[in-house]
Amino acid sequence: xxxxxxxxxxxxxxxxxxxxxxxxxxxxxxxxxxxxxxxxxxxxxxxxxxxxxxxxxxxxxxxxxxxxxxxxxxxxxxxxxxxxxxxxxxxxxxxxxxxxxxxxxxxxxxxxxxxxxxxxxxxxxxxxxxxxxxxxxxxxxxxxxxxxxxxxxxxxxxxxxxxxxxxxxxxxxxxxxxxxxxxxxxxxxxxxxxxxxxxxxxxxxxxxxxxxxxxxxxxxxxxxxxxxxxxxxxxxxxxxxxxxxxxxxxxxxxxxxxxxxxxxxxxxxxxxxxxxxxxxxxxxxxxxxxxxxxxxxxxxxxxxxxxxxxxxxxxxxxxxxxxxxxxxxxxxxxxxxxxxxxxxxxxxxxxxxxxxxxxxxxxxxxxxxxxxxxxxxxxxxxxxxxxxxxxxxxxxxxxxxxxxxxxxxxxxxxxxxxxxxxxxxxxxxxxxxxxxxxxxxxxxxxxx
Length: 448
Ligand code: HAM
Hints:
- There is one protein chain.
- The chain folds into 2 domains: 39-190 and 252-344, Bira Bifunctional Protein, Domain 2 (BirA Bifunctional Protein, domain 2, 2-Layer Sandwich), CATH 3.30.930.10; 356-447, Rossmann fold.
- It contains 17 helices and 16 strands.
- It is of the alpha+beta class.
- α14 links the parallel β12 and β13 (383-386).
- The protein has helices at 12-17, 39-58, 72-77, 83-86, 105-114, 117-120, 161-177, 191-206, 216-221, 235-242, 253-269, 317-322, 335-344, 364-379, 393-402, 413-418, 439-447; strands spanning 62-63, 69-71, 88-91, 97-100, 125-134, 146-155, 181-187, 273-275, 287-295, 309-313, 328-334, 356-361, 383-386, 407-411, 420-425, 431-435.
- Bound molecules: histidyl-adenosine monophosphate.
- Histidyl-adenosine monophosphate (HAM) binds at residues 103, 105, 135, 137, 143-144, 147, 149, 151, 153, 282-283, 307-312, 314, 330-332, 334, 336-337.
- Histidyl-adenosine monophosphate (HAM) binds next to β6, β10, β11 and α13.
């Protein structure tokens, strides 16, 4: 007869062990703008990382991983947005002012210089890196505060062939994956062109009552970085940007020639692009080429809010970080957005393992024996799944079906006594009894 314990009265021992209510976490929800990756979402992201990694290696890029934390000063100098708000800053016990990286590019450059790669590797050096990035951004759809980027950077090449190569690789990748994109390109010209352009933009936004129409963020940015206003997605700011002066009218001869060369390359390579004179990108370190990859909606409209990636030339950034004059160009792809787009288009990301076998068991003793059989099969290289807890055959067969297994092995009381196992072909439903000794051979025969 089982002992009945009244629920209402806590025993002295229970009272001692239980955690006081005041100590239980009140809020166990995730931090804003972050997400957990469970099961398929995790697999999808891992698959895309692996695919991109082998893709970039094939194009001659060398992989590196830099720390998630870097000196905050680096990011504060080279970022357009209000970094004070966007950067997650930390002070270490040694008083170092650190930040969670808001992009990979600058860490890659820092590491390139730290390890003298410009002296030990033939220029141009192609590097790529994959990892999490943190930005304390305004919360909105498809903008996370922690997300994953893959970056490809080419250091030590001053000619437009480098950006043509990058744009072409991403274009080819999207073609391989069946993703429809439109490449947006623009030129921001050399620093001198940008200086003149900025002054013109300030006058435009301050003139004809325009200032009162722009959002508060843009008001703050106007004097320090007027090009940031062209990047704002607030309704009023978007419509004002329509009538704003265009950078193309401020390009000098060299910048024009540079851009024409790039366009020539893209035409030759068959890349579909759109010349977008308002594309300035969200970062302050670019010169000459900038580009973005916009996915197309089902009715063929480019979706600027969901750019899958972007990049450009940053000839002055390496010098700003290290004092060394080395030109650079690169791009970053947002992996969460890519996974979303691939899923949305029903494009298969991670293939289920082929020839999956499900091992079902029907008693306490069978559970133990099935664990041993599982090990034997795994060691032989079979892809096996099982359920240690389920007792009902119906449930286990449903799971086997869901996993699209080819074969289900069933171990019940009778099979345990006979040292046999039931082998069920999931497509035909045909079942046969196999001696356990012969199981491996039988499976090899069936799955080959
Ligand atoms: P970015 O345009 O800031 O460029 O980011 C690149 C990509 O990261 C975007 O196109 C988007 O797919 C993804 N992304 C950006 N912010 C978010 C977010 N909050 N949530 C989800 N995905 C996001 C850069 O980061 C530059 N470092 C690119 C570069 C590399 N330029 C030269 N080299």
